[in-house]
Design a protein that fits this description.
The protein has helices at 13-24, 27-39, 43-71, 75-85, 93-125, 133-144, 147-166, 169-198, 201-209, 218-231, 238-243, 252-280, 291-302, 306-340, 344-365, 379-406, 409-416, 420-445. Helix content is 77%, strand content 0%. α1 (13-24) runs parallel beside α12. It has one domain (13-452): Hydantoin permease. The protein is mostly helical. The longest helix has 35 residues, at 306-340. The structure holds phenylalanine (PHE). The site of phenylalanine (PHE) has 16 residues, from α1, α2, α5, α10 and α14.
Length: 453
């Protein structure tokens, strides 16, 4: 049955939990969560996000790991292997392709945003100060207007990501996560405590958790669900690829619980840290994608010990982005090595170069090419919308249908190994709640349910 040769396996269960948390925790939790919450009514967005993480994200995360482990191959091969075993059409492999290609599309703009962080880390190192809000905004504008600076930082980040994957699953991906993730958690705790002392934590908590029903619009619901997918790395092959290196003994359910809790915690804690500083220094939370870069440098410049703090903050964001981006590279690299027999280093290069080129296009979409739009959006926005709002939920929907309705209860139960009650609950949610939830949100997006408002 198998289309694959001998493959690597994570050193142990904790290594898998660590790398999966590494994939999940990224720019999504810090940069995207804070700016989306900031522009989507704060607590309303947070509530939808949390509901979607629990009701859709967790069950799908388990389903995706299940396919990866059962199929024992890169996302495309894993789909082929499981389809063959469960007597389904090989066409289901399209799901593996959507994920693998989607991951590369995400990486192309993810790396550009991570490049901003590289630039700001450098500024923090060299002690650049901003004295006024206008200067902070001008600083960010100057960066995105400069294609060379953007391209250079994007290149540095791509080299970092591709480099780790080229080193291999255990000695590259696992080792990098083992160093960066603990460092990341440590820095985050210090940041949050410091934010509580210097900033306005109570306003931040009100903003994030005081639910206001009138803020709950369809736009907020869509943004919240899309973000649950994005922040848990769902539907993009990354989790499937990581799951394929998992040993047979590990319990998927409890493992996923760890990942979801850690990922949510990092999102909420960094939200609390960022908003307490934003409010503490009288800045507005709704400035869009540039939020952490337009507000925080100003805050850092006025804070006691601000420079050291800034260096640690940007280092934290960089580590988070890096451990995620390697999971975006892995699906295609593993396909190239397993399917085409290409050496890992070469495969990493073959993956990295086209993504890097597309990323250069993204760099230009902020400046020289800003007049070229796709459905009214620049390339950066278009790629983000296509992946987070369309490809991820659609792929999630297909995974839920495949595991919930097509694979068969026997195979699924054999792989998931939950107690009867827990299994029945998970399986029912996966079969009904997940597809219906995603479909409803889609209908909203297409404007079919406008009359409900
Ligand atoms: N989850 C990552 C983040 O929050 C992004 C990501 C999406 C990674 C999809 C892999 C796959 O930043």
């Amino acid at each position: 049955m198998s289309h694959t040769a001998t493959r690597s396996t994570w050193s142990n269960r904790w290594a898998f939990i660590l790398v999966t948390i590494g994939s999940a925790v990224g720019l999504g939790n810090i940069w995207k969560f804070s700016y989306l919450a900031g522009s989507n009514g704060g607590s309303a967005f947070v509530l939808v996000y949390l509901l979607c993480v629990a009701g859709i994200g967790l069950p799908l995360l388990m389903a995706e790991i299940l396919i990866g482990r059962r199929g024992h191959g890169n996302p495309v091969t894993a789909m082929l292997n499981t389809a063959e075993e469960t007597h389904n059409s090989p066409w289901w492999a399209f799901l593996g392709w959507i994920g693998t290609i989607g991951a590369l599309l995400i990486l192309s703009y993810y790396s550009v945003v991570a490049g901003w962080i590289v630039d700001y880390l450098w500024q923090a190192f060299t002690g650049v100060r901003v004295e006024t809000a206008a200067a902070a905004e001008a600083g960010f504008a100057a960066l995105v207007q400069n294609p060379v600076r953007l391209g250079l930082c994007h290149t540095i980040f791509m080299v970092l990501s591709v480099g780790v994957v080229a080193r291999g699953v255990v000695s590259g991906i696992e080792s990098a996560n083992k160093i960066m993730l603990p460092a990341l958690f440590l820095i985050l705790i210090v940041l949050t405590l410091y934010g509580a002392v210097v900033g306005d934590m109570s306003q931040a908590l009100h903003f994030l958790f005081d639910f206001k029903a009138e803020a709950l619009t369809s736009g907020v619901v869509i943004a919240g669900m899309g973000h649950a997918f994005f922040s848990l790395s769902l539907g993009m092959g990354a989790i499937m690829a990581y799951g394929s290196y998992l040993d047979r003994q590990t319990n998927i359910g409890s493992t996923c619980l760890w990942v979801v809790v850690a990922n949510t915690l990092v999102g909420l804690l960094s939200g609390m840290a960022i908003f307490s500083l934003t409010f503490g220094y009288d800045m507005l939370p709704s400035s869009g994608p540039g939020l952490i870069l337009q507000t925080l440098p100003l805050v850092f410049s006025h804070m006691p010990g601000g420079q050291v703090f800034a260096v640690f903050f940007f280092l934290f964001v960089l580590f988070a982005a890096w451990t995620s981006s390697i999971s975006l590279v892995e699906p295609f690299v593993s396909w190239l090595t397993e399917r085409c027999g290409i050496h890992r280093v070469k495969a990493a290069l073959l993956t990295g170069v086209p993504v890097w080129l597309l990323g250069l296009g993204v760099c230009l979409s902020f400046n020289d090419w800003s007049d070229y739009t796709i459905l009214g959006r620049n390339l950066f926005d278009a790629l983000d919308h296509l992946t987070s709002r369309l490809m991820m939920p659609l792929s999630g929907l297909a995974i839920a249908i495949y595991v919930g309705w097509k694979m068969g209860r026997a195979v699924v139960g054999d792989e998931i190994k939950l107690e009867r009650g827990a299994f029945a609950l998970w399986f029912t949610v996966l079969r009904f709640v997940v597809p219906i939830g995603i479909a409803l949100v889609f209908c909203y997006e297409l404007g079919w349910l406008k009359w409900l408002e």
